[in-house]
Every structure is written in structure tokens, then in C-alpha cells.
Design brief:
This protein is α+β, with helices and mostly antiparallel strands. It has one domain: 2-Layer Sandwich (Alpha-Beta Plaits). Helices cover 23% and strands 25% of the residues. The protein contains two helices and four strands, in the order E-H-E-E-H-E. The strands form two sheets. The chain has a two-stranded antiparallel sheet with strand order 1-4. A two-stranded antiparallel sheet has the order 2-3. A hairpin with a 2-residue loop joins strand 2 and strand 3. The longest helix has 10 residues. The N and C termini lie close together (4 Å).
Amino acid sequence: MRVVLNPDACAGYAYCARFAPALFTVTDGLAALRPGLTELPPDLLAGAEAAAESCPMDAIDVLT
């Protein structure tokens, strides 16, 4: 499983960082995946899905 963030679609609402702070950071008003995150740990799946569902720009995909 992994999380994909489309930085071109991000508008900086930062819902992702609220729902999954272990996965996302917000810098200069735009979201980014935390460095070194290549695979989604199972214990972070629920947060990743909540972040993807809450993103008003549909900039996040959770690939299983």
C-alpha cells in the first residue's frame, strides 16, 4: 500500500495534515508526504484514507 500526493492539485487546505499528521506536512501552504515514506504502514491506513476523502482537491490517492 502507498499514498500518492499530486502536488499540482494541492491548494493548501491542509486537511491531510490534520487527519494524518504522521504522513503529511504542510510547508509554505502546500502539502507534502513526509520524507522517506515509500510504503504505507498498515496502522496509518485509516488516516491516509481519511486524508484522501477529506481533500477538496482530490490530490491524494491511497493505492492498495
